[in-house]
Structure formats: C-alpha cells, structure tokens
Amino acid sequence: MRAQIYILGTITAKNIKLKYKNSVLGFFWSLLTPMVYLGIFTFIFSNAFPDIENYSLYAITALVFWTYFSNSSIQIVNSVISSAGILKSVNVPTIIFPITALMAETFNLILSFVPFGLLMFYFGFSPGLEVLLIIPAVLSFMLFTFGFSIIICALNVFYRDVGILWGTLMPALFYFTPIAYSYEVIPISYQWIVKFNPLFHYVELFRSILYYNEMPSSELILITTVLSLTFFGLGLLIYKRLERGFISNF
User: Fold this and answer.
1) Number of domains in the chain
2) Which range of residues forms the domain containing residue 106?
3) Longest Cα pair distance anywhere in the chain, in angstroms?
4) Which residues contact 64 (CB under 8 A, 6 or more apart)?
5) CB 144 within 8 A of CB 198
C-alpha cells in the first residue's frame, strides 16, 4: 500500500512538472484558455443575454469547472496509452495512471481558485456560508469526471478512434452545456434534451453555490450524487473488465 501511494505521488508530481517544463509562464498557461473564453463571452454574449445579471460572474463560475473537466478527461483518456512503455516493463496497477492524471488536474484546479477567486470578487462575488458547499460539490464532480473518463480511457486502448472521437466531440459538448448562456433561453419543448447532459446538472450545482449564493435544491444534490456514484462505479467496473487486455493492445 505504501509503495502504491509513493508511486501515485511520484507520478502526479512528475506530470505537473512535465506540463510546465521549460515554460516561461508555467502554471499561468492553464488560466489562459478560460480567460480567453471569458473575454469572448463577455464581449459578445453579455449583450445577447441582457437578462443575466452580472454576466461575467455567471460565465466564470461554469468556465472554471468546464476547464477542469475538459483537461482531466483528455489527460485520463490518454494516460494508459502514453504509459505503455512503463506498463510493459514494470508491474504496476494500470489504474494508477488515470488517478495521477486526475490528481494533477485537481492540483491545477486548486491553484486556479486563487486568481479566479480574485476575478470573481472583482465581478461582484459576495460569498455566504453556502460557499463551503463547494468542497463536497467538487469532490462529487471529481468522482463523475474520473468514472466517465476511465470508460473512454479503457475503450481507447482497444480502439484509438475512441480517443480521437472524444477530442472531436469536446467542442460540441462545450456548447451543448449552458456555460455561456442560460438553458432557459432554449425553447421549453427542447429543454429536456439539455438536461440529459450530465454536465448541465453540475454547472447548475456550482452556480447555485457561487453565483446565486444559495443552498442547492435537494433534487439537484440528489441528481449529481447519483450521477457521480453511478459513473464512478460503472467506470471502475468497465475499466477492470477491459484491463486484462491492455498489454496485448499496446
């Protein structure tokens, strides 16, 4: 157990260092993409959605967590394939590599809370005691992100098209998720389609806490909890079932 924890810590630290190695701006590159998106959203969509009060704060509370999901899923999906050389020569549990990918991105998320927190205060963020709920909300989102991503990761070992397809679908999923807009602008007859997107419910959860400064509804808490546990359990089940064939498909 100690050996596995040591390996987890070592690989996680290595992933973080490699990501910013020989980079002048280092960690701040992880903030560049969401900041660009925020600038575009504020410039274009703030006038398109005048009914959304304090649009910049509305957008950033979703952007922070979309960036985390996007980066984490991409890193996890490719984590096993990129570690094929190690897995062929060293007998370690393959699940370590998706876990370390998630931990590295979670570390980046925690660091990003500082500059994004300052921006949120600038945009009018006024936290109450409800802000403490962000901790269990993030933990729930971590479980969902990990479970969802390791399913694609396992399939990607056998069929590389899966990883390519996921990268292609990511931009579409971004606009299918109400990040730059409120789902209420969608005709009522089509809103049920958006609610089939699991990320919709997490965006609503984070906005309840950080934008509206209120306790999320019991229905929303229940939905996100069920999604997290379901995808986490299903992800582990599928991953373990397919894991035995990984080595022969590298």
Assistant:
1) 1
2) 2-249
3) 58
4) 34, 109, 112, 113, 116, 206
5) yes
Of 127, 75, 126, nearest to 103 by C-alpha is: 75
* 8 exposure class (CB count in 10 Å sphere: 0-12, 13-18, 19+): middle
Comparing C-alpha atoms, which of 103, 26, 29, 117 is closest to residue 72?
103
Interacting residues of 82 by C-beta distance below 8 A, sequence separation 6+: 97
Tokens standing for 191?
């809103």
Exposure class string for 141-163: b at 16+ Cβ within 10 A, else e: bbbbbbbbbbbbbbbbbeeeebb
pLDDT recorded at residue 112: 80
* Between 205 and 89, residue with greater pLDDT: 205
DSSP letters of 156-175? HHH-HHHHHHHHHHHHHHHH
Using CA atoms, how far apart are residues 150 and 237, in angstroms rounded to an integer? 10
- Write the DSSP symbol of residue 178: S
Place 143 in a pLDDT band, splitting at 50, 70 and 90. very high
